[in-house]
Amino acid sequence: MKEGNKTDDDNAIREDLLSVLTNLTPTETQLVSGLAVSTAKNIHHQYLIDTLDSVKVNAYIEGVDASFQDTTHPQRISNTCQIFREPFRVSDTERSVDTAGFSDRYAYEATKALKELKNDMEYALMRGSLICGDATAAARQLRGIKRGLSLVTAQSGVSLTETILNDYLQNVWDEGTEVNALYGGMYMKRKISSFTAGATKNVDIKDRRLVNAVDIYEADAARLVKLFAHRYVYVSGDTNYDVVGINEDLFKVAYLRKPFTREIAKTGDADKGEVVTEVTLENLHYNAGFWSSQHL
Asked: Which of 57, 64, 174, 234 is surrounded by the fewest CB atoms within 10 Å?
C-alpha cells in the first residue's frame, strides 16, 4: 500500500509568490530581498518602541526595600500600507502565435510584471514619503527609510571621507546600536570601497545580495558593515550624493497582503491580469541608522 503524500516532501508544490519575489535579482533590490518579513494587520500598521533607563550606580544596602523609578511607557509609532499593482495584458492573437524565448506570452508578462512591481517597492522602501490617503483623491503611501530616520545630516559640497563616515557610524553607536548595512549610489559605493583602512577581505558571510568580499567594511563603531550599490538612494534630480546606513535587524517589510497574481475580467480580445501586494516598512527605532546628504 502506498503511503499518503506529504506536503513537506512534495516537489510538485509551487513556490510561494513572496519567495519568488524576494529571489528575483536580489543584488538590484536589496531591501525587498534582504530585510526580514513581518505581518501588518491593518492599513495603518502600528508597533511599539521602548528605551532603557539611563545607566546608574546600582548598589543596595543589605536588607532594604527596593527603590522604584517611574515606569516609562513604550512609544507607539506607525506607517501606512501602500497598495502596489502592476497590470499586464496579452492579446489572444499573441497567445496563439509561435514565439521565441518563451512558450506563453501571458506567463512571460506576469513574470515581468512581478519584477517591475518589486522595483517600485524597492523605490518606496528607500524613498517613500508618508501619505495617509483617502477614499477618492490620494492613494496611501508608506514612509521609506530615508524619511524615517532621525540622524540626518547635510554635508553641502563636502567630499565623503573615511573619518566622516566613521563619525556617522559612531553617531548610531552612541544611540545604542550598530550600522550593519550601507547604501549609496555606485559612486558612493566605490568611494567607500576605496577606504583601505576599513576594507575587510575574505570574510565568510552568506548573503546572496553580496557579490564579492570587498562588499564588507569594518570600523571601530560598526563591525562587518555590508556595502550595497543602491539605485534609489540617489536618483536624477537629487542635488548631490547621499549615503544611508542602517541596522537591518531593526527594519522589516510588513505585508498586509502578500504578493499574488490575479486575472482581470476579459472585456475584449485579450487576457488581462495583474500582480498585487499591500505592504509597509516597519522601523523599530528612529535612531537605528543615519542618512547623510549633499556629498561630492
From this structure: 57
Q: Tell me, yes or no, whether 167 and 214 share the same domain.
A: yes
Residues 172 and 194 in one domain: yes
The closest alpha carbon to 36, from 50, 13, 18, belongs to 18
Q: Give the C-alpha separation, 233 to 252, whole Å.
A: 18
Domain containing residue 269: 20-43+78-141+254-282
| Number of domains the chain contains | 2
Co-location of 273 and 241 in the same domain: no
Q: If 0-12 CB within 10 Å is exposed, 13-18 middle and 19+ buried, where does residue 240 land?
A: middle
Give pLDDT tens digits for 138-172: 999 999 999 999 999 998 888 999 999 999 999 99
Question: Count of CB atoms within 10 A of residue 151's CB?
Answer: 17
- pTM of the full structure: 0.86
